[in-house]
Specification:
With about 525 residues, the chain is mainly β. The protein folds into two domains: about 20-210, Immunoglobulin-like (Sandwich); about 250-495. About 5% of the residues lie in helices and about 50% in strands. It has four helices and 26 strands. The strands form three sheets. Strands 11, 12, 13, 14, 15, 16, 17, 18, 19, 20, 22, 23, 24 and 26 form a 14-stranded antiparallel β-sheet that branches. Strands 1, 2, 3, 4, 5, 6, 7, 8, 9 and 10 form a ten-stranded mixed β-sheet that branches. The protein has a two-stranded antiparallel sheet with strand order 21-25. Strand 19 (about 395-415) and strand 20 (about 420) form a beta hairpin. The protein starts with 8 loop residues before the first helix and ends in a 21-residue tail after the last strand.
C-alpha cells in the first residue's frame, strides 16, 4: 500500500476486514451432535490473490481446508466442525509483493467464507476467528500462512445432504520488518478468490429427517426470518444458522455512542454507520513509533439555551501523534475482526493547549444582546481511536474515528446590551466538559479520503453538556447568572479538520486551513 500523491494512502488506510453474514435459514445452536462417527476432511483448492504492493496483479495461491465433520446428524440438531485448519500457500511472486512493503514476519487472522447448501438453497457461514501465529517470510520461494480456531455451529432443519464449499478467503495481517519494526502501514489485507472452473465443495453431511407421532416423516422446516439473524432475500434457506452473537462495539473507548447502543445505523453520504453491541476478543495494543503531523481545526459549537452558535472561525493548530499503537479486535459478525489505530492530538495556540478565542453575540434570555469571547482549553491530550473495516463492494475502506478529551470553557470581554459586564479573569466552567467527537469516512480504491479520516481531515461532530460556571464576577457573584444562561445538555458541535502535514503527504510544510461547516 504505497503512499500516493493524494496525501499518504498508507497513513489513511486502515486495512481491516469484517465478514458479511447471510444467515439464510440457519438457526443458532450451541452443542455438538454426531450420530454416525466423524469424517476427516482435507482438501486443497486453487485461488487467486490480490496483495498490497502487487500493482493490482493477481497472484496464485493454494488454500487448504481441513477439519473433522460428522458423517450424519438429525435435522434440527446443531453440529460444529472440529480441529479446523485453513492454510494459504502464497506463491513466490506473492511473497515478493509482501517483501516490497518491507514485511519480514506476519501474524494475524485468516477468514474463510464457507457456503452451506441444501435442497437448492444456500447461506454463507463465516469462519472468522482463525488465528495465524507469527511466521517468517522466506527469502525466496512460496510461503504458507496457517490458521486454526473455532467456527460457528450449523443446524440443518430439513433432511437431505448439507454440502459446505469454500468461498473467499481474507488474510488480515500485522507485518513487521527484519529489524522488528512495524511496516508502513502495519496492517496488510490480502483478498483471495477461488480460481474459476473447480468444484470447491470440501464436506458433505447427511441430514436425517426427524419423525413425528406415529412414526410418520416430518417435513423439513423453513425457518422464520425473525429467528436467529434473519434470512437472505428471496431464499427459504437450508434451514440453519450460525451461533454468532449480535454485532457491536467493543466499548466506549473506541467510540460507542448512544446511536451505537441502539443497533446498526447507516451513515450519511455513504459513510459507515454505528454498529450494535456484541462480544469482542481483544489482543493487547501494540506500541508503534508515532508519526508526527500537524494541521488545523475550525468549526461551530451551538449554545442550546441561547439558540445560537459560537463560531471558531480562526483555525486552531493541531499537533498530532499518529499511529502510536495498533490493536486487533475479533468481534462477532457483522462487525467482525477489525483494527483499531491509536493517535493523540494537542491544541497549540501560542504554545498553550487552546483553540484561538472566538467572539460571539447572543440574545440572552431571548431578548438581551450579549457579546462574549469564548476560549477553549484542553485539559490534556485528546485520544483518537480509528476503527478500520473491510473493503466494501465498491472497493472503499470504511473507518470510524473517535476523538475523546476534556475541555475547559472560559468567558471574558462580556458585554450585555452594549455595557461591559466584568466577569473577571477566571470565569470558566467549574470542571472540564467531556467531549467525544466522531468522524466517519472511507478511502477509495485510488487512496483518496472521503468524509473524515485522521490524515485527510473532514467533519467531526458531537453533542456536549456545558458544566456550570465558577469564578465569574468582580465585586459580585455572577456564577448563577452565567450558569443559567449557558450551562446544560444538547449543545451540538461540528468541527472541521483540515488535511495533515505528515511524512509522505503533499500538504507540507503548510497544510490548508479548513472552512468551518455548519
Amino acid at each position: 500500500m504505497a503512499r500516493t500523491r493524494h496525501g499518504g494512502r498508507g497513513l489513511r488506510r486502515t486495512a481491516a476486514v469484517a465478514v458479511t453474514v447471510l444467515a439464510a435459514g440457519l438457526l443458532p445452536g450451541t452443542s455438538n451432535a454426531v450420530d454416525d462417527g466423524e469424517q476427516p476432511v482435507d482438501r486443497e483448492f486453487a485461488y487467486r490473490c490480490l496483495l498490497p504492493g502487487g500493482g493490482g496483479t493477481e497472484r496464485m495461491a493454494t488454500v487448504r481446508v481441513a477439519a473433522l465433520f460428522p458423517r450424519q446428524v438429525p435435522a434440527g440438531r446443531p453440529f460444529r466442525p472440529e480441529s479446523v485448519v485453513v492454510g494459504v500457500r502464497l506463491s513466490q511472486d506473492a511473497v515478493a509483493d509482501l517483501a516490497t512493503l518491507g514485511a519480514a514476519r506476519t501474524e494475524g487472522v485468516v477468514r474463510l467464507t464457507a457456503l452451506a447448501a441444501q435442497n437448492g438453497a444456500s447461506a454463507e457461514v463465516p469462519w472468522s476467528q482463525l488465528q495465524a501465529p507469527e511466521t517468517t517470510l522466506p527469502a525466496g520461494g512460496a510461503h504458507t500462512i496457517e490458521a486454526r480456531g473455532t467456527v460457528p455451529t450449523v443446524t440443518a432443519r430439513s433432511g437431505g445432504e448439507l454440502v459446505l464449499s469454500a468461498g473467499a478467503v481474507v488474510l488480515d495481517l500485522l507485518a513487521r520488518t527484519a529489524d522488528d519494526r512495524p511496516t508502513t502501514p502495519p496492517n496488510l489485507s490480502v483478498t483471495c478468490t477461488p480460481d474459476a472452473g473447480q468444484d470447491t465443495a470440501f464436506a458433505g453431511v447427511a441430514v436425517v429427517p426427524g419423525t413425528g407421532s406415529g412414526g410418520r416423516p416430518t417435513p423439513p422446516a423453513v425457518d422464520d426470518p425473525d429467528e436467529g439473524q434473519g434470512q437472505g432475500e428471496g431464499q427459504d434457506g437450508p434451514g440453519g444458522a450460525t451461533d454468532q452473537p449480535r454485532p457491536g462495539h467493543p466499548g466506549t473507548a473506541d467510540g460507542r455512542t448512544e446511536q451505537g447502543e441502539k443497533g446498526e445505523k447507516g451513515g450519511k453520504d455513504g459513510q459507515p454507520g454505528d454498529r450494535g453491541k456484541g462480544d469482542c476478543v481483544e489482543n493487547p495494543p501494540f506500541p508503534l513509533e508515532p508519526v508526527q503531523a500537524h494541521g488545523y481545526l475550525a468549526g461551530y459549537s451551538n449554545v442550546h439555551k441561547l439558540g445560537g452558535a459560537v463560531r471558531f472561525q480562526e483555525s486552531g493548530l493541531l499537533r498530532v501523534n499518529m499511529l502510536k499503537a495498533y490493536q486487533l479486535l475479533q468481534c462477532s459478525p457483522p462487525e467482525g475482526p477489525y483494527f483499531a489505530l491509536y493517535s493523540d492530538v494537542r491544541f497549540d495556540h501560542g504554545g498553550k493547549p487552546q483553540l484561538p478565542p472566538a467572539a460571539s453575540t447572543f440574545l440572552t434570555f431571548g431578548f438581551m444582546p450579549t457579546t462574549a469571547t469564548v476560549e477553549l482549553t484542553a485539559a490534556g491530550p485528546m485520544e483518537i481511536v480509528t476503527r478500520g473495516y473491510q473493503l466494501d463492494e465498491q472497493g472503499r475502506q470504511p473507518e470510524i474515528s473517535t476523538v475523546t478529551g476534556r475541555v475547559w470553557i472560559r468567558l471574558y470581554r462580556v458585554q450585555v446590551n452594549g455595557t461591559p459586564l466584568d466577569v473577571g479573569p477566571a470565569c470558566r466552567t467549574a470542571r472540564p466538559m467531556d467531549l467525544v467527537m466522531t468522524g466517519r469516512g472511507h478511502t477509495d480504491v485510488e487512496g483518496r479520503p472521503h468524509g473524515y479520516t485522521v490524515a485527510g481531515g473532514g467533519p467531526l461532530t458531537a453533542t456536549g453538556t456545558f458544566p456550570e460556571f465558577s469564578g465569574c464576577g468582580v465585586g459580585e457573584d455572577l456564577d448563577a447568572l452565567i450558569t443559567a444562561a449557558l450551562s446544560g445538555p444538547g449543545n451540538y458541535i461540528k468541527m472541521t479538520q483540515g488535511p495533515l502535514c505528515a511524512p509522505g503527504t503533499e500538504h507540507c510544510p503548510n497544510p490548508p486551513k479548513p472552512r468551518p461547516e455548519r
